Q: What sequence folds into this?
């Protein structure tokens, strides 16, 4: 019956709006879930930094810096998700406004602003699946046009080493307080690389495995 209605009648705007709002809420819940996971991971990584800095291992300084770099990535991802949530809220307001205009004027125009935000959100790994559903519904409603590439461009994944190192220094100062002033600056990974012995390399590998386990 529904398929026959779709052939002979245009979609009911009220039904379309309810569906779009349901998909918007679904995506918001996905973002909240990922952001909560990142908050927990940030707390665990901070604890690991403190635990490692108190270790008497020869490679503790290098391990601490590796963990600090990981914390930089976690915080950057949290920031990206917070921005994405604001974009999603903006999409929601514009979608509801578009349907209100449609109710008054009887027509709807594709929005380049919504198109831009939706295209950005579809390319976010955490929302690729659920955002695709929403984008298809918005296309059917005439609010946006057909979506294009849904993968993040390579340059969006690149990291500026100098910026990361600056943030690492800030994080170590923030978490370890005055301890660095007493023990000296934690050497960078490149400075320590040639000095790490076989046993230290095994410890570093174990540290990376622990971080991966925390992420999963």
A:
């Amino acid at each position: 019956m529904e398929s026959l209605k779709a052939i002979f009648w245009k979609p009911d705007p009220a039904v379309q709006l309810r569906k779009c709002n349901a998909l918007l809420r679904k995506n918001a819940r996905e973002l909240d879930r990922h952001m909560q996971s990142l908050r927990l991971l940030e707390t665990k990584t901070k604890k690991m930094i403190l635990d490692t800095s108190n270790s008497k291992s020869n490679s503790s300084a290098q391990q601490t810096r590796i963990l600090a770099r990981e914390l930089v990535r976690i915080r950057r991802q949290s920031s990206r998700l917070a921005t994405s949530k604001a974009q999603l809220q903006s999409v929601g307001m514009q979608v509801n406004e578009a349907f209100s205009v449609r109710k008054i004027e009887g027509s709807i125009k594709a929005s380049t602003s919504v198109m831009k935000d939706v295209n950005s959100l579809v390319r976010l790994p955490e929302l690729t699946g659920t955002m695709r559903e929403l984008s298809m519904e918005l296309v059917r409603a005439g609010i946006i046009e057909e979506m294009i590439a849904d993968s993040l461009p390579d340059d969006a994944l690149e990291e500026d080493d100098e910026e990361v190192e600056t943030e690492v220094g800030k994080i170590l100062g923030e978490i370890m307080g005055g301890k660095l002033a007493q023990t000296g600056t934690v050497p960078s990974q490149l400075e320590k690389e040639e000095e790490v012995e076989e046993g230290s390399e095994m410890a570093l590998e174990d540290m990376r495995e622990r971080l991966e386990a925390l992420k999963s």
In short: The chain is about 75% helix and 0% strand.
